[in-house]
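Appendix C reproduces, verbatim, an entry submitted by the partner laboratory led by Prof. M.T., so that reviewers can inspect both the input and the predicted structure.
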Amino acid sequence: MQLFLDGSDIDKIRKFSDLGLIDGVTTNPSIILKSGKNMIEIISELADIVSGSVSAEVSALDSEKMVEEGVKLSKIAENITVKLPITWDGLGACNTLSKKGISVNMTLCFSASQALLAAKAGADYVSPFIGRLDDLNLEGVDLISDIKLIYSNYKFSTKILAASIRTINHVKQCAHLGADVATIPIDIFERLVKHPLTDSGLTQFTADWEKTGQSII
């Protein structure tokens, strides 16, 4: 499973990219708003940091303007993926942009039928929002399983990009179910490595090593 970071914190994204741990980045208007920075500048910088997909979302709601914005965003860098909402206008724009060879991520997916339409429209990625489904007392990860089965049945090439991840357990469940990608908020990503037994074990090993009075170097 590929791991994307969901955010715009340049320093932290560069840190994890340098470690070879992330495969891409996703952004959205809410993330850009919180950053307080110019969208084009942020997207351009992110595209320089990571070699994989960098999702940038359009702001338009009608198909024609979505295409115009999508083409403009795609020219920022070769690894830009244009994010479109799963609406009829979004699907129309996806069909047009994909035929132009522009990578598209259909976002705000909450049902298997929406995912089916996204694949038919030629999307490279579909983003089911599992956390927001959990908020409605639904089992968000069930949608990952449903989409996986449908795509497998019909050999669709659209990748499942699990989004709205809220917990470490979400990451594990997405990996179990075979999601192609999980886009993870930076604070959740930072916690993936943490475990109390690792910390206590390291403390013990360090104390015992110091007692030996030895040095490797």
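Residues 14 and 49 are 6 Å apart (CA to CA). Additional entries are available on request from the coordinating office.
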